[in-house]
Amino acid sequence: MASNILGSFVDDYRNRALLAAFSFKDLLYRMFAVLSTTLLIIWLSVFLYVSFYYSYVPTISHSRPVHLEFSSCVDASGICSYPTANITLTQQHHLLKSGQPYNIMLDLEMPESDVNKELGMFMVHLKLNGRNGQLLTKSRRSAMLRYKSGQLHFLSTLFFSPFLLTGPMEEKQVVKVEMFSEFLENSYNPVTNIWIEIESRRLQLYSAKLRIQAEFTGLRYFMFYWPAASATIGIAINVVYLSLIFGYIWYRLVHANQVVVRVGLNSHRNYASSPVLSNNPSTSNAAAGDDAANNSGQPKGKQTMEQRKMEAKETLQRDKRRKLSTQNNLDDQQERQRSASFSQPPSPTLRIQELSSTSSSSSNSNRTTDASDE
To answer: Domains (ranges, CATH) in the chain?
Structure first.
């Protein structure tokens, strides 16, 4: 009896230890899975926002140097033709984004010379060409130097003389000529070349530069001029959506068991064999026993943590049921013995034996009395 109690105690302790070990290992696995999933969601959120930013927000500015060409005079100094330039923007792909308005400007770096001051206004001609030299559109704009009076020019020269003498500053102006405002490119016929002509033979220039500036509005304006706020909001939205998706996937993986009802000739057999649909406890127990047998028949290396945990729980439950059934059987047996002893009347043989023993004892006592009298 003591050995049985000790063995049951050892088995119970071993099963509880196995269950605790499986629970701790399962907890570690779950923590690792949650941490890995969180890092993956954050990384995917950042990657999706950056990809969307670079695909949705185009480059804000494109700049190209303008190298002007002209014909020199043979008999006199100076130029004998208008300065012109042909700029190639792209040959293989679209430089400008379709649907995005652009401002096309020409920056002219001009010295504050007497010739340019006396020149006054001049015209700038610009043409946008597509593939095969097809003319898409053109524009003409006027420009001139900013006016400065003699007194203002003298005072500014006197005030900035240290910078003018050492070289950081020069007596020049950058004249910005806006050739196109909110230009929209046709995606089927993009701009590939730009032709520029300055209609003046007396103009003096240091350099020229063509700038194509994107005019952002709406979401692009917010994403470009408020990058921190837009990145925070965009990444947070991605995290929420990805968390919902991964949460649904996780739920489907954890609760992978589904009830499949087949309609056909063998539907009554499927209904009877289903432990969920059937109300018969014996059928449910048989199905559970078959599942346990199938799980136990698998190799240990292929059994998952959930299966091991369920096996440990089933072992504990079986031990408890066995102990309870054994104790109940012992109690019932003892109760039956007591009831049988109280309910059955004494047999005649036992009564005769009791009477004979009583008479023999009385005769022995009489003999003893007679002997004492003698």
So the answer is: 12-53+232-302 (no CATH), 61-215 (2.60.120)
